[in-house]
Amino acid sequence: MRRAGVLGRPVPGWLNVALGLGTFVGLLWFERKRPLRRWTESPRRRNLRNLAVAALSAAAIQLTERPVTQRLTAVVESRRWGVVQRLGLPPWLEVTAAVVLLDYTLYVWHVLTHKVPVLWRFHEVHHADRDLSASTALRFHFVEMVLSVPWRAAQVLCIGAGPLSLSAWQITTLVAILFHHSNAALPLALERRLCRVFMTPRLHGIHHSTVEDETNSNWSTIFSWPDYLHRTIRLDVPQQVIEIGAPTVQGDAARTLPDVITRPFISASRLPTMWTRGALPSGRDLVA
């Protein structure tokens, strides 16, 4: 009864919508008032384009991922499959442990989207945005969402994420990616403290750099400890020297919706490469 009553129900949908929409609108306002980096394009045009990409991705998730995870979380909960299900933890600790493990395995998936060529072709759409803002957090190609379904299913089964654990992780992840993709200039002293625990705008700005050594860092989503654990953390790149973008984007490329959608299907030989080798001059920035 305890498990069915407490852990067998996901976070209410209205709460997900309220938290996600409230965070998004609040960060758009903050970006306008205190931008961290200079804009290269009209924020309004970018946001509308990114939201159109996000709508396609949301439809793909509803059609492919949600039916799979709904069934798997119910099975995991009833049959007690997975790591956290076997530990006999109290409900609050079970959810916490599941969220931490889901976040860590998302770190692994993020690395794979950069290292596996077929995954990178679709993930590159996310990095092709020449500005970084809260709307970039939603700019993922719908095919990437479909390709992630087997990984999500494996996460649920291996970790033992029940309905409440999965939905708690999903809404926490949404708030986290909106936050760390935002172009919000937090007080530097505050962010230096936050980045010890959470992924922050300055940390993730380094990840979206066109410098390859910088892109291959700061992969985390909610908590920053996976980067510290695997020594992939970068704290020393000032935001003013970062050029946001992807290696196959130049000029106004990827600034129309059709181009964004069709990019992964264009032959790699037809896409110019602009990875910058080595690191740009580093400063102290997040290094206290």
Summarize the structure.
The chain is an all-alpha fold and 288 residues long.
What do these coordinates show?
57% of the residues lie in helices and 0% in strands. With 288 residues, it is mainly alpha-helical. Helix 2 (13-33) packs parallel to helix 8 (163-181), helix 4 crosses helix 5 and helix 4 (91-115) packs across helix 8. It is globular, with a radius of gyration of 19 Å.
Top keywords for this entry?
single chain, 288 residues
What's the total number of strands?
Answer: 0
Q: If you average the pLDDT, what whole number results? A: 89
What is the rounded Rg? Answer: 19 Å
Helix content: 55-70%
Q: Tell me the span between the first and last alpha carbons.
A: 49 Å
> Which regions are unreliable across 5 or more consecutive residues at pLDDT < 50?
277-281
Shape: globular
> In total, how many domains does the architecture comprise?
1
Helix segment tally: 13
Summarize the helix and strand pattern as letters.
HHHHHHHHHHHHH
* Beta fraction: under 5%
Biggest β-sheet strands, sense, barrel? none
Structural class computed from helices and strand pairing: mainly alpha
User: What oligomeric arrangement do these chains adopt?
Assistant: single chain
